[in-house]
Structures are given as C-alpha cells and as structure tokens.
Amino acid sequence: MSLSDAQTFLRQGFVLPDNPGCFHSNPEDAGRFVNHSEHFNVGMNGALRDIKAGEELTMDYNFHGNPEWYRQICRHDSSSSSFP
Q1: Do 57 and 35 touch, CB atoms closer than 8 A?
Q2: Partners of 53 in the β-ladder
Q3: Is 84 within a domain?
Q4: Alpha helices, DSSP H, located in the chain
Q5: Would residue 57 count as lying in a domain?
Q6: In terms of pLDDT, which residue wins out, 8 or 65?
Q7: Backbone phi, psi, residue 5, to 5°
Q8: What is the domain range of residue 29?
C-alpha cells in the first residue's frame, strides 16, 4: 500500500467510544464527506439544524473518542489532519 493510499484509508476511518482499541474504516461510508469542526451542523442522527445549499457538512469528530494512538497516526500528515 502506498503512503498516499494509507493516509486516505486512515482519514476515512474512525474509532468508537465503547471500543477505542478497534479502528474502523469504510471507504464507501458517506461520512468521508463530512469535515471536523468545533461548530458542527451534523450529529450522529443527521442534521442538527437547517443546512443551506452549498454549506459544508461538519461534525465534531471527538464523539468517536479518538484515543491517543489514533491521534498520533493522524499527526503524521499534518496537511490533511483535523486533529491538533
């Protein structure tokens, strides 16, 4: 797997709070079109408010739990990471 493919795979993955040791990745999941924001407009069950046409869909990724091992992986490519 190329570095670029690995980074794409990791950016499309997530962990869940009830199982932070397990990494999930689904390249066909529509969640890959949602970006991180502290001022998010989408939650686990859909839109949190009316979203204007053309407005970016955002979610607080921290609800996944994001254990330290996952944040460390994301830091390797700071140009595409949403984590500090």
Answers
A1: yes
A2: none
A3: no
A4: 3-11, 68-75
A5: yes
A6: 8
A7: -65, -40
A8: 3-75
